[in-house]
């Protein structure tokens, strides 16, 4: 189903769980597949920052990619149709979103002013019409909405059938729940902030990987003057995960997010933090000192954030050969 | 065209310009019509705060209304149709918007979570799901978009044909360009902040009446924890006003808004300001001291803001008889 839309791009597949299992990738795709053994070999002791048995492992793909634009998608997401019945080219829309600026400093009531047939409305200050470079494009889902376990339990039959034909900028200073199901970003602008945290195997929490990345990323985008969009494109989310399993994974997160969100709403980064890496390390320090009091998990997470940046720099430092070029047999995902 | 939608409501018509001209109101409407003579008689010397020969005069209707919900609409706005061809009941949608809370503190990616078929997505903190009371509902326009004169000049043929099926909260801390063409608000929650300023006859500026009200209102809503929504309902905006006339009216505003917006983005109201009236008076003081340096017009405007609150209190004080009940012949609008 995705073939006509993905064929011309490079795929990185991060295989979660048992590395001895074989994943069959259909013919005709340019791809790399990485399993846990590859992660361990490439990162050595720093592999500890990459989650296991959780969708958070995907961020390893961001780290080893050499592309400017990354699109990440879940395996139960398929091509959606627009109201006219036409199949939606999600990637094309994400790239449009990333190539046009964001309106981070002032709200435009007619939505994305850079879109054909739209513009800035009366009263939009002219000095702000250049907008901000867009770092992240957050796409939405038709059919199964991205609900938490309590909402899934209460509304098992709810389906998202509303196609909202809009792309919005999430304004500066406003946090949002970033879902990793249908997400694109500019790796050069924001890559090192897209760490999906410590989740799954051996960790007290799951299903907060994308949320964690979203909070960290948004604070850093706000600090660096980068934009974040949400809205189009839609994908078709085919199956709801089990609300019972999800409740187990989310349980601690439901409490912790009540502390984490005020933290992210009020955290401020020092002016000297002029790169994503510097911002991320400063944020890790704040997480350790402020959220460490909430639960020791956040101390471990803060350390993993530092390890992630070390791993990023190791794999991406200009002097080093890209890890994957020395691994012709390594296969991969995203 | 509006008859089936407006018939059951009370109309206040504020007649602008020459008071000796007769306005014919179709039969069957419950209405009051106020002309300039009525404004002068009711407000006495305080009538100076009500603009003449400018759409800003409409705020006199807000002041004399005794209703909880106000809907204000321009005379070139007609009933729009949704994509299925059904006529849109704009008032019904505005009232829905005002009766359901806003999501001011956190962005919900599936838009209005209080709407049927939608909810809060995964990662939306549970403590924030009560939302904030909604004070303002800002509707949009199909056909002629609300563009400023420079954009009208550059894009004379642009029409808004995109029906975006969404209602959004404008997040706390974010300003937006509020258009008075299709606007509803809860008079009890925010009425005294809906002053449309000094525009038109004898003033150096026009077409910034609704913008001014929007900036003031948003700062006060943010301070008081009230919500502002934008999006549905659409109306059909039938004719573009002349870009040449508009440029004359807007000319100074184009420069001034570059100073006014940073002012509103950074102004903060003292904690003691616990009512809209107190907030508005504090804001008038800030306007005088901070924007007075930009142009003496803002000193005059700040004084008019104070006069407006005095007029509001005079007409609306619990001890006083409502002005209009003692004026059985007075006719009226909104």
Automatic annotation (TrEMBL), chains A, B:
Its EC number is 5.4.99.30. The keyword Isomerase applies. Belongs to the RGP family. It catalyses: UDP-beta-L-arabinofuranose = UDP-beta-L-arabinopyranose. Glycans are attached at residue 122. GO terms for biological process: cell wall organization; plant-type cell wall organization or biogenesis; UDP-L-arabinose metabolic process. The record marks 122, 129 as: Required for activity. This is UDP-arabinopyranose mutase. It is an enzyme of class 5 (isomerase). It comes from the Eukaryota. GO terms for molecular function: UDP-arabinopyranose mutase activity. Probable UDP-L-arabinose mutase involved in the biosynthesis of cell wall non-cellulosic polysaccharides. GO terms for cellular component: cytosol; Golgi apparatus; plant-type cell wall. It is found in: Golgi apparatus. Transmembrane segments: none annotated. InterPro entries: Nucleotide-diphossugar_trans (IPR029044), RGP (IPR004901), RGP_fam (IPR037595).
